[in-house]
Specification:
The structure holds two protein chains of two kinds. In chain A, helix 4 (117-137) packs antiparallel against helix 5, helix 9 (198-212) packs antiparallel against helix 10 (216-227) and helix 9 (198-212) packs antiparallel against helix 13 (263-279). By secondary structure, chain A is mainly alpha-helical. Chain A has helices at 8-13, 16-56, 62-109, 117-137, 141-150, 159-173, 178-186, 188-193, 198-212, 216-227, 231-242, 254-260, 263-279, 287-299, 302-305, 318-324, 363-372; strands spanning 337-338, 345-346, 352-354, 360-362, 376-378, 385-387, 392-393. In chain A, 64% of the residues lie in helices and 5% in strands. By secondary structure, chain B is mainly alpha-helical. Chain B has three domains: 3-88; 109-266, no CATH class; 341-381. Chain B has 17 helices and five strands. Chain B has helices at residues 2-15, 25-45, 50-88, 103-119, 123-133, 139-156, 161-169, 171-176, 181-194, 201-211, 220-229, 235-240, 244-247, 250-253, 255-266, 274-299, 352-358; strands spanning 341-343, 349-351, 364-366, 373-375, 380-381. Chain B has a three-stranded antiparallel beta sheet. In chain B, strands 3-4 form a two-stranded antiparallel ribbon. In chain B, a hairpin with a 6-residue loop joins strand 3 (364-366) and strand 4. Classes of the chains: A mainly alpha, B mainly alpha. Chains A and B meet through helix 1, helix 2, helix 3, helix 4 and helix 5 of A and helix 1, helix 2, helix 3, helix 4 and helix 5 of B.
Chain lengths: 397, 384
Amino acid sequence: MSATKLNADGILLLEQPFARVPYENYRKVFRATQRNIERELGNVQTVSNDLLKRSKSREVNLEDAAKSIDGMIGRVENLKRKLSELQDTAGKPTLDVTRERLQHLTAVEALQTTGSLDFSRWADTRLDRWLVDWALRAGREKTARKLAQDKNMETLVDIDLFTDIRRIEVALSRHSCTEALAWCSENKTALRKIKSTLEFELRLQEYIELARAQKKQEAMAYSQKHLASWQETHLPQIMQVSMLLAVEPSTKCGRYRRLYDNSRWANLIQAFRLAIYNLNSLPTEPLLNLALYSGLASLKLPSCCNDSRNADCPVCDPSINILAEEVPYSHHANSTIVCRISGKIMDEDNMPMAFPNGNVYSREALEDMAAKHSGMVTCPLTGNQCQFSELKKVFIS
Amino acid sequence: MDAPLKELLKLEKLTEKAQGKTPSIDNSLDSLLQSLREAKDRINAGSITEDTYVHLAQTVEAKKKEIDEKQKEIYNGIARFGKALDKRFTQPLPTHEPLFTSERAQAALERTIALHFLRTGQFSTAETFIQECGIHIEAELQTQFQDLHRVVLALKRQDIGPALEWSLKNREFLRKRSSPLEFYLHRSQFIRLLLSGPLHAAPAISYANATLRSFYPEHATEFQRLLTSVLYLPKERLQRSPYADLASDSVHTDLEPLFAKEYCANLGMSRQVPLRVIGDIGGGGALARIEKARTVMKERKSEWSQTDELPIEIPLAPENRYHSIFACPVSKEQSTDKNPPMMMTCGHVISKDSLQKLCKSNGRVKCPYCPAESAQASAMQVHF
């Protein structure tokens, strides 16, 4: 274990989603609370103003008034209950998770070096978090849940969010836009902020499916209801799909064939994924991949890819080597030579020494060897032997 | 994370039942309910007047305003928290083109992860994963990892039996590596016997007699220390003696990583867990550096062919140096097969290309680091 200085900022770069996801979740809860308040109290306000107006014009009848007030009481009690429920099931738990995650990050910020047991445990947890994130994105939900459960870190990962994403993606792959549209309507404002056209694309697809099924009347009604509102910005596309009513699904005409093509569903899934990732501050690539990319690039050397494999080097491992193919080589401006016998670095304290055949090993390892074999040293690679005294000192800088 | 945590705490206080500048929403709603019920009672008692309706409308208005203000307070609290987060996370998370997307890469990644679970002893998770992905891990490999784990667990339970059994079976291999594993296993047991009871030297010494003798030639100093430590019983005295390190737990806990290292080396596997090594480097600052280099290069509009080499050096700790890297001190380029390191007769090493460039017309080269001259032909290619 070395005592390398801990790079807190470097570490935190990857921890943004970790901290932001519960924050975004809480904002969602707040918006839900706000919607409930506006709906119920807005209604109560309307009723009470109406009562006042009618009483001023002497139109109020006691029975009706009583009913109205009962209605108002009902609404307020309803609101109380809903708000309490939101707070207990969503609000407070989300804030608790936020706090836990921030404290988890504070713990690593407080460490000075990477050599301590505390850091090792923290890094173990981090790798597990990355594995859960990767597994969820790859659809390996069982593994993700098991890992999160075994390591007791359900609050440190976002299983529910990804399960929801998966649910909607699966629905889209089954050619159903309903779930995705429900999500869009829940997140209207946020989607508008990022200028997303996801809702329009979904509506368009539903229209195309109606046209495909030759349900002309329904299609036209659908277009009036759902596509018309996008006229200002998307008229050309709307006009194009409206032509579909006159075109068979089996058409050979390029433009309309593309519209009927089922690959549009794959694009919808992609568009949905990007939108929901964006809204939740999730990265598009799993964090594991980003860490692997930069880690592999820091280690990859030409020697990893030819025959001089070192069992300890992670990049030399056959499976990891395949991953390393996509990654650039590391860059080194200075020499660091490692003894093939001891694995130790050769420097002024442990000078490299050369055999007559040009193979170089560290002085310590060779001295050790000489001590056990009365001054003789053998090159492990070639078997050549010579006296320790015949070795030449090598200076690399 | 101090600033965000502070804001979070403030926000938590705001949303809990009765804190903050304005009354809690619950209280406002309760007071509104009371007004409504009073109005209802008036109706039932027949004493309702226009004023009641006026008063009711006003109360509704007032309570709604209260609640809106409370919501505003909370909204501001949330915004402040968000800002504190923004301040702490100044760099956005770098994006990247999709990685490891090919089927071959995916399969390699799945295999790596499965082996990781096995290596770290998470056998049931490994099984779930292997099933869910439908990949195949050779049964032999799985048994090997299970064996490793079994022995490590035994060591945790202070049972050196299985570890010893393995060491005896693989004595030759350990001897070739000059590994102290067997000796340290016995040492751990010796010390355990020594400290197990009040002044219990006899069983420990007979254990030493039986098992430690053969290690004398290679571990003479340590052997002597162990036997002399008997003089310093009981444990408290030993802890104050020059042999205090023998009383510490690390004599026993260090056995686990040592055994894992030897076991894995025997099977040709790395001594550290590969995913941890790569993850720690990648997540320890490498990504930040690469991203910074990328933005700088973009600003300078210089080209970086991504598939070639990183434009910057990522510092590596000594334990992450697995291969030799020779960068010619003259040209600063890394040596390759076509441009290997060459050692001149003075012992200094430069790359072949640099050697040729420094060569004079009479075939002699003046070393850039010392006054010595050597013949170009006598320069020897070295292998690290």
